[in-house]
Design a protein that fits this description.
- By secondary structure, the chain is an alpha/beta fold.
- The strands form two sheets. A seven-stranded parallel sheet has the order 3-2-1-4-5-6-7, with helices on both faces.
- Helix 3 crosses helix 18, helix 6 crosses helix 8 and helix 11 packs across helix 16.
- The radius of gyration is 22 Å and the shape is globular.
Length: about 425
């Protein structure tokens, strides 16, 4: 970056900071996910801390699970205080379905209303549909600008994952309600954020008069992956009961819902049949029972895989001990809007990605960068072809993968885009 560009960027950020101070321009960030959740620590906190450093006055409203808050609440509060970010939260309730959600939203709205006079918002940033039900109304009431950060096609995701059985008339009405709200937010928001280019294309078809949309995928701070983990790689393999000669496939993140665990194990079995040194590692907080029962049903020996619970900060180190990253995902009607966080993590760790097409921008990125292999999970022939490619393909080096991760999923790039959106709304 030349000196003029650096000077211009500094002036722009100073202007944002002065605008916020002049207007007392609070940004309300509304999330139904908790900051103490793994998702909150990877996909909310880094963005908020980065935007606070750029001069925005932020107040976060979230729903926290009591057990997670007990484990991580103090740490998160310390981080937010250091960043100068205000935090208001309620405790999440799980049961009964639907009614518990309405109860949570009612309490969250009460928290927000108590802050409106003392901390008047200039922007209300709704993360996904549920908090946007509140945020949109408050924006109309207060005149604040509303940003709908859609995070995927939420109603379709619920139906695709089987949480909402559309044959049930109650869930069918719930689905219809939220789809109408999504279309309302597409049209009436002052700005939109989509995780994928494919998502924007779908929005344009469903709502030609939609608000201006910006694409910001699930991003990550790639600096944590720049360390040389070569010594750690061998230590971890020994801890897992593996050795330097093993080739390790890894799955990182939660399971269940739309992630196709059976098909991933089936793919691993195909690979192991060709490569006896192949092993499988799960870096996941999901129940071990789910993984073990699936493996047993497909006759995958427990000697061939390991399950580890890993905190977010340890993900770079653990991924460094692996050779390939995998995710198979049932796209359904919601596939266009999906941006798996693990995609960027795998690339930043230098791992070629084994993934299915028809999922957000995954296919475009893999084809354009050559950083992986596309597989149809419903085709044994496609799996066999992919296994053959794993054996013969000569992938680029780790530095190239890290560069691709920074270009496609880098946190600084995401913050630049959010800053630009906020500036336009100020």
């Amino acid at each position: 970056m030349d000196k003029y560009s650096i000077f211009r960027a500094c002036i722009c950020r100073l202007a944002v900071y002065l605008a916020c101070m002049k207007t007392d321009g609070w940004v309300y960030f509304l999330s139904y996910d908790g900051l103490t959740d793994p998702l909150g620590q990877s996909q909310i906190l880094p963005y908020m801390e980065g935007l606070a450093k750029r001069g925005f006055k932020l107040m976060i409203f979230s729903c926290e699970k009591k057990n997670r808050f007990g484990l991580f609440g103090s740490e998160i509060q310390t981080r937010l205080k250091k960043a100068g970010i205000e935090w208001e939260f309620i405790y999440y309730t799980k049961k009964p379905p639907i009614l518990s959600t309405l109860y949570d939203l009612f309490r969250l709205k009460g928290r927000i209303n108590r802050k409106l006079k003392s901390h008047p918002p200039q922007i209300i940033h709704g993360r996904s549909v549920l908090p946007s039900l509140i945020g949109f109304r408050i924006s109309v009431k207060t005149g604040a600008r509303f940003l709908f950060d859609m995070r995927g096609f939420w109603a379709d995701e619920k139906a695709d994952a089987g949480y909402w059985n559309l044959k049930n008339p109650i869930y069918r009405r719930v689905y219809s309600f939220f789809r109408k709200k999504e279309l309302l937010f597409f049209k009436e928001s002052h700005a939109l954020v989509s995780l994928t280019e494919m998502g924007v294309k779908r929005i344009a078809k469903e709502c030609p008069s939609h608000a201006e949309a910006t694409v910001i995928p699930c991003s990550l701070d790639v600096s944590g992956f720049k360390k040389d983990f070569s010594e750690e790689r061998e230590k971890l393999r020994l801890e897992w009961g593996f050795n330097s000669g093993n080739k390790i496939l890894v799955y990182a993140g939660s399971l269940g819902g739309r992630y196709r665990l059976s098909e991933m194990f089936l793919f691993f079995s195909k690979w192991h049949a060709k490569e006896p040194e192949a092993r499988f590692v799960f870096l996941s907080n999901s129940p071990e029972k789910l993984i073990r029962e699936t493996a047993s049903a497909l006759n995958v020996s427990s000697d061939l895989y390991r399950i580890r619970t890993v905190v977010f900060s340890e993900m770079p180190r653990n991924l460094s001990a692996c050779d390939f990253g995998i995710f198979f995902y049932h796209p359904g009607n919601s596939g266009e809007g999906v941006s798996p966080t693990k995609f960027g993590e795998y690339l930043a760790a230098g791992l070629p990605v084994i993934a299915n097409p028809d999922l957000g921008d995954v296919e475009d990125i893999v084809k354009r960068t050559g950083c992986g292999i596309l597989v149809n999970p419903d085709s044994l022939e496609s799996m066999n072809d992919a296994v053959a490619k794993m054996e013969r393909e000569k992938f680029r080096d780790r530095d190239y993968f890290l560069k691709v991760a920074a270009e496609e999923f880098g946190m600084e790039k995401a913050l630049d885009k959010y800053e630009s959106v906020y500036q336009k709304l100020m």
